[in-house]
Amino acid sequence: MNIAFIPVRGGSKSIPLKNIKIINEKPLVYWTLKSANEAKCVDKIVVATDSEKIKNTVLEFGFDKAEVYDREPANAQDTSSTESVMLEYINKSDLQREDKFILIQATSPLLKSEHIDGMMKKLVESGADSIFSCVREKQFHWIETPDGIKPINYNPQNRPRRQDFQGLIVENGACYINSVGNILDSNCRLSGKIEFYELPPETGYEIDEKQDWIIAENLLKNFYK
User: Fold this and answer.
1) pTM here?
2) Chain centroid to CA 99: how far?
3) Which whole-number Å values give the CA distances from 86 to 30, 32, 139, 144, 158, in the listed order?
4) Confidence of residue 21 (pLDDT cuts 50, 70, 90)
5) Residue 176: exposed, middle, or buried by beta-carbon count in 10 A (0-12, 13-18, 19+)?
6) What is the pLDDT of residue 158?
7) pLDDT at 12 over 80
8) Which of 5-9, 33-37, 148-152, 219-223 has the lowest mean pLDDT?
9) 159 catalytic residue (yes or no)
């Protein structure tokens, strides 16, 4: 079985109840839920929440693959990791070690069904154990050290042209796939041999702050009519 898991809590401080706040005429969680429901590789979707408002909103969508899991309050705090609720659900479910666990973040509304299917295809064909979605960032990075700042991904004496610059692979936080067994063994969404799946640049926006919301909404209006 391939299960898509979307954790959404009601206690967001930067944007209250942001997971059901309207963006491009739909609640935020609708967009990733829609993509997961349309992905051919997904057999079941579990939305894990501690909020009755979010639960009711999700159920009203009527997506045929989706169900809601009532996550424990202890794993829905500001300090709670995503892995904590993943493991909570896995340990209470009847999932098998070989089942694929597709973690999807509701804060990445530009994720599409074809992205999820493409990730699963690459994971299987590559023989990797886990895979994450990413974007390619073509910016020059520096790091502060006790001896001053130093470049970490290019040589200032030989500045490459943008078209010749490979850039950096950056997690966009949208989607991760691993097996249930690997997650149980490592307590981590990524483990073993790790692959990456590159997505379009616009998917690099993850909604955490109010300014992210403005950018993501405008992108949604352009890419999702």
Assistant:
1) 0.93
2) 19
3) 20, 17, 33, 35, 45
4) very high
5) buried
6) 93
7) no
8) 219-223
9) yes
Nearest to 46, CA basis, from 3, 83, 100, 2: 3
Instruction: Report the alpha-carbon distance of residue 44 to residue 5 in Å, rounded.
Output: 9
Chain-centre distance of CA 210, in angstroms? Answer: 19
Gap between the Cα atoms of 107 and 16, Å rounded = 13
Q: What pLDDT, on a 0 to 100 scale, did the predictor assign at position 224?
A: 66
DSSP state of 160: P
Contacts of 102 (CB under 8 A, 6+ apart): 2, 3, 4, 5, 36, 41, 42, 116, 120, 175, 176, 177
Strands 168-179 and 130-137: antiparallel
165 vs 90, more confident:
90
CB 112, CB 199: distance < 8 Å: no
C-alpha span between 88 and 98 (Å, rounded): 18
Two tokens, residue 184? 């149980």
Mean pLDDT of 183-211: 93
Statement: residue 24 has pLDDT above 70: yes
Confidence of residue 118 (pLDDT cuts 50, 70, 90): very high
Output the CA–CA distances (angstroms, integers) from residue 204 to 37, 42, 86, 135, 167, in the order listed: 22, 23, 23, 6, 14
CB 49 within 8 A of CB 40: no
The active-site residue, picked from 9, 97, 159, 162, is: 159
Provide the H-helix boundaries in the chain.
28-38, 52-61, 82-92, 113-126, 180-186, 210-223
